[in-house]
Amino acid sequence: MSPLPGNRPALFLDRDGVINAEKNYVNRIEDFEFVDGIFDLCRSAVAAGMAIVVVTNQAGIGRGYYSEAQFLSVTEWMVSRFAEEGIVIGGVYYCPYHPEHGIGGYKADSFDRKPNPGMILRARDELGLSLERSILVGDKASDIAAARAASVGRAVLLAPSHVPPSSVPDLQADSLHKINELLFGPLIQERHG
Length: 193
Ligand SMILES: [Mg+2]
Description:
Layout: E1 10-13, H1 38-47, E2 51-57, H2 59-62, H3 68-84, E3 89-95, H4 118-127, E4 135-138, H5 141-149, E5 154-158, E6 171-173, H6 176-192
Parallel strand pairs: 1-2, 1-4, 2-3, 4-5, 5-6
Helix pairs in contact: 1-6
Bound molecules: magnesium ion.
C-alpha cells in the first residue's frame, strides 16, 4: 500500500561530511569517498518506510570552483551507486548560491541555502513528505538549524564535538553506525531476528 500524500517520512541527508567524506569541495567521482555506514543507515530508513532525500549546499558552484553540470554528473553517479546497494534516492536538492562569494547570478541570499529551510520545504511539497515524522542527519550546526526551521521531527548531528547551543541536535554521534543503531536499533534486530 502506498502512503497517503504528505504522509511519508524522509531521511534527509546532508551530502559532504555525511554521504561522502568531507574534502575541499568534492566535485569529481575520483574524490568521492562514501562515509562508512551510509548504505546501512539508508537501508534501515528504507525498511522503516522512509524516503531518502539529499539536501546539500553547493556554494562551490556559485564560487566558480565547478559547474552545475559537473555537480549533476557526480550526482548521477552517486545515485547509481546507491541503486547498486539497493537504495532508491527519492530526490537530490542543492543550493548553488552564496550571499557573498557567489559569482554573477550566483551571488544571492537564497532561502534554499541551509540554515534556511527552502530545500526541505520544497522536498516536502514535491515528494509528499511528513516532516514531523522525518529525520535529518547533518555534520554542521547549519544542518541542524535548517531541520529546526523546517520543523523536521528529529535532527541528528554526525560530529565528535559540541555545537553552539543555538543548534542543539536531538542526537549526536561520531559515526553513522552509531546513528543507525540509535535510530533504528530495535528495527534492525527485528529484521535480523
Ligand atoms: Mg556537510
